[in-house]
Amino acid sequence: MERNCKQLVEWLLDMKLKTVIVATLILVFLLFAGICYKTSPWQRKPYLKLHNIQHRAGNRFGQPVVKDELPPDKVKPPVQNDLIDLEKKSNNVESAPEVLPHRSHDIQRLLGNVPPHDSIFQVDQMPTDRGLWPTVGNGHIATVVNSDTIHMNGLYNGAQATSHRARIPALIAIEISIAAPKVPVIKTYSLEMGGGIFNETTVGTFFRIEKLTYAHRTYRELFVVELKIKIHDHPTREPLILKLSVKSDVSSDDLDITEGTCDIPTVDCSYVHGTVKQPECEGEKPGEVHIFYTDIPTNITMDDGMVEEASHLYLMSLSPDPRLAKDKFDNGFRLNQRHPLSRSHMSAWASIWAEGRMDMGSNSELAQLSYSSLYYILSCLPLEWDVNNPFGGMSLGGLANGEQRQGHVTGDQERWIFPPLLLLHSNLSRSMLDYRAHTLKVAMETAASQHYKGALYSWETAYSGRSVSSDKSADLYRHYSTGDLALAVQQYMWLTNDTSFLTRGQGSDLVKAIAEFWESRITYDTSKKLYKISGVMPPGKSSFLVNNSMYTNSVANISLMLPHQLFPEQGIPFSDKFKAYADSLFIPFDENLRFNPAFDKYQPGSPVKEPEVLLLNIALTDDIGVDVEKKNLKVYEKSSSASRSPLTHASVTMNWLFVKDGVKAEESLSRCLQSVRGPFKVWSEHTDGTGAVSFVPAMAAYLQTLLYGYAGFRIQQQQLAFDPVLPPKVTQFTVHGVDYLGQSLTFVITKDSIVISLTPSRTRQLLLIVVDLQTTKTHTFKNNRTVRLKAGTKGVIRQLRPQKDMVR
User: Which of 346, 536, 681, 735 is most buried, by CB atoms within 10 Å?
Assistant: First the structure.
């Protein structure tokens, strides 16, 4: 018995020893495998580890290890530099796909549900055509990335037709090269629209460098460049030396620049003051800009392998007010010590996207175009009205591309750019109306100069609102843009009921003045026994001058009706004569052929450059009717199909959807999309790639096809109508944040259902209902604030009014 027990003990001890030996071997193997994987070439990708602490970089002896070497003429007394660690976005740099599918979890939480695969464009080489490069901006300042130029809202140089956005040198736009060691690198360039950042990444065998460029969304005076450097698994501990070069010197053909002193002791900086060389109008005070900016070092050296990461912040603050420019520059560095500027910037963009956007889960092409088009437009708009530097309108190339059409504002602002912004970001869209209200006095002077009453808005303007067009015929005859403005005001007021625009924002004066202009512009036709409008240039430019343009007369009718539609509820006095003129204004219509002639004496089949009847705002098609619109599409189909304008194809797409022909709509949409250029999804003016690039009206027209075409929205008096269908190859179409009477509505459209969710306003509590126009059934937003309808339902959203809308 004792012998058996002894053998058992020996056997157990032997097994234990073997187990320990095997476990030790396995552990050694795992450790060795881990080391090999960590140091392998495929592991030397972007350094993904996140550090959420703020630290001062230093070596083991407490000596500084990051050296910024300034040019000799910029050397100042030593200044302590806090090196702030920021979040890292993970990238797959080896494959360098066009669309980056991943963000760090921390940043994704910040940006909410903005899908990275639809909102990040990444390439490993920038397009050779700089017109296809993306932009960053905030409505006050904007730039084409990696360019030597910044443009600022309202700053123009040159008189009248020579007026153009003044070029401001981008004094912190830098180019980075690796001076030492000489190692191969991989570069990627990413436009991260969710956070409003352009990210240029350089990855070597033991380091990763990110250059983030953005115009801060809330601290709008600040143009920012951040460098984030991370070192990992340094094999030789050889110093990493970066060479920095600035893309522009302190000069501009548009500005007289004087250098001053930057008396901010905590940072190496410079100050310059620029004044435009020639104001827009004789006798006006020249525009000016005050600039405080960080001095850029010639080199950055990281000379100790113990340092894993460092961040360098370079700021440029621009404002017409020198005190404001200085304060924002100084505060930018102070704020960055507490929280990275990039984080507050991305947070502001996240809020914008949460307020309004569109997702198309299964059609990445349409979804990416939705995000990019909306991003480029939003980048041109301020978050709020600035009384010191009022918004100067939306130019055709956006603020960043100030050289496109000289940065002038045209009637395309109201016809194309305003409508999609109105539905998703009504608060931001108002800035366009405020620009027109701000220049009302000039518009009244323009009308008087042509012997008309009221206000006539010039087709092409700059900051002052005066005409800057080189084509004088446009000012004399292209009057429909003033009518487009009236329609924009009507749609804005019906959607928002923003009484402050009428009562405190000069809106009522604007509405009256536009009606008075058309009163003086119409004449009585005794043969028709109706009022007519003679001698105008229509949008289609079918001939030099025409009488009774369908487009012009339609928007003139809206203008004359507007006081009657808006003023009674506000108690604003008005004359009934305007409505009488509207009721008696001739609208071209052929009773025999049942279509709308483009103008007097138009014959079906006659060539027109652009079919103006089909260019009418989709809000007016309900008055035309489905049968007549079908005939219009047939009559003008040849001209519309041959058009090179994405605006025409977008309009035709919406019209085909109005008459329920999805096949024709998809054909027109595909023609419209031929204007999309390059990996960053900018649009050209023409579908063959010619004309202006980064053409904002085309981007907005595409957004209109989604909102007013496929989603089927119509802004009507006292209701918001919807009649949605799915876009091509889309299984779920979600429109987030549709604004209506201060409330926010989200529409989720699938092949089976339409689900409408309500997010009530915290400041404006209203009861909204959904009315199914086919069954006349009324639905209320109950506790879950959701209404579910069958696919194909045509309905309206209304405010619940006692004794009018009772729940059935």
Answer: 735
